[in-house]
Structures are given as structure tokens and as C-alpha cells.
Amino acid sequence: MNLKRAxxxxxxxxxxxxxxxxxxxxxxxxxxxxxxxxxxxRPSGYTTEEARAFLSALSEDGQAHYLGVQHKLDTLYxxxxxxxxxxxxxxxxAKTWAVGFSVLAVLVAVFDWSENSAVADLLxxxxxxxxxxxxxxAALFTMLKSGFVTVALTILLVGVVGMMWRRWKG
Length: 170
Fold this sequence. Notes:
Shape: elongated
Structural class: mainly alpha
Number of strands: 0
Order of helices and strands: HHHHH
Radius of gyration: 18 Å
Distance between the termini: 27 Å
Largest sheet: none
Number of helices: 5
């Protein structure tokens, strides 16, 4: 399989998992928590009070869905996203740049998986069991994930614009 085909196959699978989370799984959690945003969707982090409010609103079924279905999907997604980015970088940039940007893509996945682990701790501890330290660690991973995703996607956008420019110039 060539690089382009590999990219499109991984990208399609990543998109399927992403859409499943965004259009089905995360809305179930939000609905169960009276409309409050799940931790994963708070790019600027959250305070202990905000975490307590979310955990208090979340039912046992919502918690089970978050720890089960959502975290299973979100275990697949970071790896698929990182692999999609790595393949895209190798298609769009010179090898040296692509390898450097690929390290960034791996960090995106590591921070997302770390966030998942920290959020699982919050969910298991519950509203009364959390403290400022455990919330700040989870929020930090959420912010790191969000920041690194923004940088990684900006680099991807620059690569796509560059490719389009080269094709247009002929």
C-alpha cells in the first residue's frame, strides 16, 4: 500500500471514530449531565468546582458510558489521529520536517491518553472524592492535548496550503 492510500485509509477510520464520539457518545454524556460539557471538550481546562458540578450532575449510567464506550472510542482516536498526522506530514513536507512534526503528532496522542486516564480517575473518585490536585492534573492534560492539537492541525493546514500553492503555480 502506498503512502497516500495508507493515509486515506487511516484518515477514514479516524474520522469514523471521531464522528461516532462527537455525534453520538459525547452528546449522551452531555445530556446525562444536564447539558454540562464533558471534560474532553473543555480546551481551557476546568476548576475543581466545575469538575464537581459535572460529576454531581452525571448519573451512574452516564459515568458508566463515559468510562466504557467513550473511553474505548477515545483510546482508538488519539492513535489514529497521530498516525493520520504522521502520514499527512510525510506527504506534505520534506522528510526532515515530517519527522520533526511527527514527534508533535505522537505528543498529541500521549497527552490525549494521559487526559483519558486522569478523567477516568475523576469519574471513579466522584464529586466528593476529588480534590484540587487530581483535578489540576486532569485539566493540565486536557489543556496540553488541546494546545498540541491546535499546533499540529495548524502545521497540517500550512502543509495543505503549500501543496495547493505549488500545484497552482504549476
